[in-house]
Write a structure and sequence with these properties.
Strand content of chain A: under 5%
CATH superfamily of the largest domain in chain A: MetI-like
Largest interface: A-B, 19 and 27 residues
Structural class of chain B: alpha+beta
CATH topology of the largest domain in chain A: MetI-like fold
Largest sheet of chain B: 6 strands, mixed
Strand order of the largest sheet of chain B: 6-7-8-3-9-10
Radius of gyration of chain A: 25 Å
Oligomer: heterodimer
Number of domains of chain A: 2
CATH architecture of the largest domain in chain A: Orthogonal Bundle
Structural class of chain A: mainly alpha
Bound molecules: adenosine-5'-triphosphate, magnesium ion
Number of helices of chain B: 10
Largest sheet of chain A: none
């Protein structure tokens, strides 16, 4: 009797596991397949691509496509590859991520630890910012940038992304800081620490997990942004996403799939890099709130 | 001189008046307990004293200096929180010295202070640990250490022991008492715990609904409660409060009680004879502590202010040192405290000795004492 009941419960359990793993494998393959094709294609020669089949491995590995995508591919009229645009992207993404994260942390700190009349209303209004589509703010933002004299410039792009990202970073930090006991700031105030000292010495040191969340989120958003890039910059100042688009759409003679693929991977690598480096903190941050004690 | 005087302090949050005019004077070196039901404004009052929140009106002075407009750091106070509020990102050492660092005390002096405090609280071995690596009791000590390091004029404690288990709480209670004796510091201490209030306090302020109902020594608060609320709040198990009609017998005023059948008369103590006679014929609330209804075995013989009555026992609760016995008087359950060797059982009729010398009487509507 005991035996049968055991196999009865063990049977479906075993089956469930198998189905689960099978599904996971299917999804993993489904997601990895494009990456696989991109990487192999980028390492093939054009002849190889024409001769072989899409999923076949390259006959011989060639980095020529990568070199071309980086240095000499045409993105419109100019043929300098992506390197300039890559540096462009770095030059506004890094400051934009840092500034929006810091300001978000500061906002979160004020909105939780130093509540004032109307602070909840302010937070709600900020939250609304998360739901405003990019397209809606294009025109007013263009006007604002012109007014500020930073239209079509790197500082302009930084400004746009900081403003647009603030809603999200503030939300992250506020929701994290409400889990921090308010006694902590009270104790610090009695110890003699002021507004900024408490932020730098007590609150920010508690925040690595949520900082990582904010950095990953902001980095991915800003690096991958196309719309703001295409609207608020032009020519040499364009970010890599826009340049990639131009590169792929530049039709001079034959379509160089290997160069397209290399360019696409180059454009995607930094976000991949950020995920790999900070990923484990990301997960930890999402489940955070465990800083008590 | 580390005195504290609170004069007619009020606090409102929007339309809600949380403190309705508090007057308390704390002498130098005094240990004042704030006690009261949840939400009565104890923490609020403590925060006002600390300067973590502003008062709506009134005056607070520490050491003779009005501090209404001073920020917490300038009030020369230290506070210990229920949650301990240790800085999670700093070692114990840095937790204790943080306040000194902010105040730019020289490094050498800081170290000296940390070592002195650590020694006093026996946490020397923990100095380089992080708060997350400490037990609840150890965190509590560190929190006290942080307060002691600053050597302030006034210590504020907000339920510092309520997160500890029962045994540790008793230990820490004794230590706090010892510390107070040794340092002679002025302390305001919020607690929920009856025993903490009774054992630690030089005086107790019993609060309810943003008002101080009584401010007196623990024994006075216990024996001579100012009103019905204080009588019911202080003491564990609480004082028995029974509605009873006032009557005359043998030239004395008292109250009539019955336990279902027979009615018997409890004469009021001499001091309240006058006050109570005005109530002749109407109902009052009579208060009698459980230990004033006991078995004759424990309390000797019948005297003029003691009477012996038989009563039917409903429930028996042995607690170890005493056995609590529930009887019914005037249809109200009444707790009596008898010697555990008196083996009463529920359903029995037991002989009980009523000590009448400490009977108290209250106006049933205004809830004030009848004196
Ligand atoms: N910032 C605030 N805004 C509005 N009301 C508040 C605020 N802080 C406290 N109160 C109210 O003031 C009253 C007293 O609160 P307080 O924290 O002082 O109670 P307490 O006596 O310390 O209670 P407990 O024993 O539960 O700690 C409560 O009714 C509370 O809801
Ligand atoms: Mg409280």
């Amino acid at each position: 009797m005991a035996d049968t009941s055991q196999t009865q419960t063990a049977g479906p359990q075993w089956l469930g596991r198998a189905v689960l793993y099978a599904l996971l494998v299917v999804f993993a393959v489904y997601y990895l397949m494009p990456l696989f094709v991109m990487i192999t294609t980028s390492l093939k020669t054009l002849d190889d691509i024409r001769a072989g089949n899409l999923v076949a491995l390259p006959e011989e590995i060639s980095f020529a496509a990568w070199v071309k995508a980086w240095g000499t591919a045409c993105t419109g009229v100019e043929c300098n590859g992506l390197k300039g645009n890559f540096l462009n992207s770095v030059s506004f993404v890094v400051p934009a991520v840092i500034i929006s994260t810091l300001v978000g942390a500061f906002n979160g700190y004020v909105l939780t630890m130093w509540r004032f009349r109307g602070s909840d209303v302010l937070f709600t209004l900020l939250l609304l910012g998360c739901f405003i589509p990019f397209q809606v703010i294009l025109l007013p933002m263009a006007q604002t940038l012109g007014y500020l004299g930073i239209a079509n410039s790197i500082p302009g792009l930084i400004f746009v992304h900081v403003v647009y990202g603030l809603a999200f970073t503030t939300l992250f930090f506020r929701n994290f800081y409400v889990t921090v006991p308010s006694d902590l700031t009270k104790a610090a105030r009695i110890d003699g620490a002021g507004f900024f000292t408490i932020f730098w010495r007590i609150i920010l040191p508690l925040s690595p997990a949520i900082i990582v969340v904010s950095v990953i989120w902001q980095f991915t958003q800003i690096w991958n942004d196309f719309l703001f890039g295409v609207v608020f910059s032009s020519g040499e100042r364009q970010p890599i996403t826009v340049a990639l688009n131009n590169l792929v759409n530049t039709s001079t003679g034959i379509k160089e799939y290997n160069v397209d693929m290399s360019a696409a991977i180059i454009a995607g690598l930094p976000t991949l890099f950020v995920y790999v480096v900070a990923g484990k903190y990301f997960l930890r941050g999402l489940t955070a709130g465990a800083v008590k004690g | 001189m580390s005195t504290l005087s609170i004069i007619n302090v009020k606090k409102r949050y929007g339309p809600v008046e949380v403190l309705k005019g508090i007057d308390i004077d704390v002498k130098d070196g005094e240990f004042l307990i704030l006690v009261g039901p949840s939400g009565c404004g104890k923490s609020t009052l403590l925060n006002m004293i600390a300067g973590l929140d502003t008062i709506t009106s009134g005056e607070i002075a520490i050491g003779g200096r009005v501090v209404n407009d001073l920020s917490p750091k300038d009030r020369d106070i230290a506070m210990v929180f229920q949650s301990y509020a240790l800085y999670p990102n700093m070692t114990v050492r840095n937790n204790i010295s943080f306040g000194l660092k902010i105040r730019k005390i020289p490094k050498g002096k800081q170290e000296e202070t940390v070592n002195r405090v650590a020694k006093l609280l026996q946490i020397e071995a923990l100095l380089d640990r992080m708060p997350s690596q400490l037990s609840g009791g150890q965190r509590q000590r560190v929190a006290m250490g942080r307060a002691l390091a600053r050597d302030p004029a006034l210590f504020l404690f907000d339920e510092p022991l309520s997160n500890l288990d029962a045994k540790l709480r008793v230990e820490m209670r004794a230590e706090i008492k010892l510390l107070h004796d040794r340092l002679g510091a002025t302390i305001v201490y919020v607690t929920h715990d009856q025993i903490e209030a009774m054992t630690l306090g030089d005086r107790i302020a019993v609060m309810k609904g943003g008002e101080v109902h009584q401010l007196a020594t623990p024994q006075e608060v216990y024996d001579d409660p100012a009103d019905l609320f204080v009588a019911g709040f202080i003491g564990s198990p609480p004082m028995n409060l029974v509605r009873a009609p006032v009557a005359h017998k043998n030239g004395k005023v008292g109250v009539n009680l019955h336990d279902g059948g027979e009615t018997f008369f409890l004469a009021a103590p001499d001091a309240v004879q006058n006050g109570l006679s005005a109530w002749n014929g109407s109902e009052v609330v009579v208060g009698i502590r459980p230990e004033q209804i006991t078995d004759d075995l424990a309390r000797g013989h019948e005297r003029s202010d003691r009477i012996k009555r038989r009563a039917k026992v409903d429930v028996v609760h042995p607690t170890g040192p005493d056995t609590l016995v529930l009887i019914q008087l005037n249809d109200t359950p009444v707790t009596c405290r008898v010697h555990p060797e008196t083996r009463v059982q529920s359903g029995d009729n037991a002989d009980l000795m009523f000590d009448l010398s400490k009977l108290v009487f209250f106006d049933p509507d205004k809830e004030t004492r009848i004196r």
